[in-house]
Amino acid sequence: MPDKTDKPARQEPQNWEHYLLWQNVVAALTRIPLYFQSAISVSGINATELYAFGNVLGLTIEQELVRTLNNLKSEWDAGNHYPHARFVR
Questions:
Q1: Torsion angle of alpha carbons 39, 67, 61, 57, nearest 10°?
Q2: Measured CA angle at 58 (ends 77, 6), to 5 deg
Q3: Helix/strand/coil for 49
């Protein structure tokens, strides 16, 4: 029986017509930390009270991730082959 911590093997869609786009998006995802920004600043809060900010932080991360990926469009769609493609939360 496989260990519950075993991850399934990653299968790249090599035969997919949009495989290059897929590769470029995966590469852009690895660069997200270089561009990620947030206006939220939390200070003076006890660690036991951080749970109250969970929803706000989650929403901010989701919105910023989408914004950052769309700003990186020139990298994941360098040839503008997908002019209408964009990420949406």
A1: 40
A2: 75
A3: helix
Residues 69, 28 contacting (CB under 8 angstroms)? yes
Count the Cβ atoms, other than its own, within 10 Å of residue 37. Answer: 7
Give me the pLDDT at residue 74, please.
Answer: 95
The structure's pTM equals: 0.72
Supply 42's token pair. Answer: 């939390």
Q: How is residue 16 annotated by DSSP? A: S
pLDDT digits (tens, 9 = 90+) for 41-56: 777 777 777 777 788 8
Write out the two tokens for 57.
Answer: 């932080």
From the list 76, 70, 86, the residue with the least C-alpha distance to 23 is 76
Would you state the structure tokens that stand for residue 58, as one six-digit string?
């989650």
Answer whether 37's CB lies under 8 Å from 54's CB.
no
Tokens standing for residue 21: 């786009």
